[in-house]
Design goal:
Helix content is about 45%, strand content about 20%. With about 190 residues, the chain is of the alpha+beta class. The chain has a 5-stranded mixed beta barrel. Strand 2 and strand 3 form a beta hairpin. Helix 8 (about 160-165) packs across helix 9. The longest helix has 15 residues, at about 120-130.
Length: about 190
Amino acid sequence: MIGSIKGKIILKTDKFLVVETGGVGYKINVSPDTLSRSLKTNDDIFLWTHTHVREDALDLFGFLEMEELRFFEMLISVSGIGPRSALTVLSIASIETLRKAISSNDIAYLTKISGIGRKTAEKIVIELRDKIGKDDKDVSLRDELDALEALKSLGYSQIDAREALKKITPDGDTNAKIREALKILGGK
């Protein structure tokens, strides 16, 4: 199928891009992270793509990084996770953080994702844990969850809090994460 697309952005919406290449405009579903980058109409872009074929549709999903595409394809291999759910999962945290959550069986972290319930989170962990591999060090995402809850209690939306936490360094304790996130949120 279509493995990548290089062309000009001719339309940018809140869910997809239309990229023209060779006189054809391709509608490509992208993650909110990709959309949040400073891409504008008429910008040149290169996307790695996944072609999703269904009985009634042919959809393209685009990614700026090959690692994102690989993780997306692992997610959709889990029964019950479709491409749109996989994009939602990718939009809530960095791939490194998601890998840590899965390898450390942190179902609570995964259930914080909108639309992902406990059973689906358990399926993700069970089916992907071996593919991702175990982390050598004791990994806990408790600090990130605590920071997220603290930011929400300060009146920030879950989306804004998650976006800020994605931009900070994953090292540090809860208080350091909250301080860094507040600096980012204060700059808006």
